[in-house]
Design brief:
The chain contains 6 helices and 6 strands; from the N terminus they run ααββαββββααα. It is an alpha+beta fold.
């Protein structure tokens, strides 16, 4: 009986610590960096939070990697780098207005999957990384969707992106139905 209680307590403690560890980097960012903005995604729960670090991109990446080791670290490309965790991406961008500071975006996996243009990540990862993460057709499917507009390109453009379905003159929506003559 005592062994069973001890084992249950140990399992509960391990699960609690594991749950806490899943958001260490995000919690650190929220507590230590300045909130800048939020970007809305395609659903009400889909968003990315933007912060500013008063350090260079390299120093910010190093600091966050020490707080919580990423599953994957992308290469620095055009002043951008991505740290990938279990269920979130932390996208670091040199602040275009002040290269000594870094814009830090915390985006859930679904936000990245549904919102980002696949070309944003070109050169940061081995080509198969995102296909392995999001499925083998993600790059092509998302690329096709993005070619119609409405994809977020990150990199300091912190505002809502255009909707993928527009209506009215010049839109991609063709209304009507069979026999309408469009």
């Amino acid at each position: 009986m005592i062994k069973r209680g001890w084992l249950c307590g140990l399992i509960s403690a391990v699960l609690f610590l594991a749950a806490c560890g899943m958001s260490q980097a995000e919690d650190y960012i929220e507590q230590n960096y300045t909130f800048v903005d939020a970007v809305a995604g395609s659903t009400s729960n889909d968003r990315a939070m933007m912060y500013r670090s008063e350090q260079s991109l390299a120093d910010t990446a190093s600091e966050l990697s020490q707080v919580q080791e990423p599953d994957q670290i992308g290469e620095v490309v055009e002043g951008r780098q991505v740290l990938v965790y279990d269920d979130e991406f932390i996208i670091l961008t040199e602040d275009p207005d002040n290269p000594d500071t870094t814009l830090v975006e915390v985006a859930g996996e679904e936000f990245v999957r549904n919102t980002y243009h696949p070309g944003f990540f070109t050169g940061m990862f081995v080509g198969s990384f995102l296909s392995n993460r999001f499925g083998p057709t993600w790059v092509q499917t998302q690329g096709n969707r993005c070619s119609r507009g409405g994809c977020y390109t990150g990199g300091g453009s912190y505002r809502s992106f255009p909707s993928t379905s527009t209506y009215g003159r010049g839109s991609t929506f063709r209304g009507g139905g069979p026999g309408v003559g469009k």
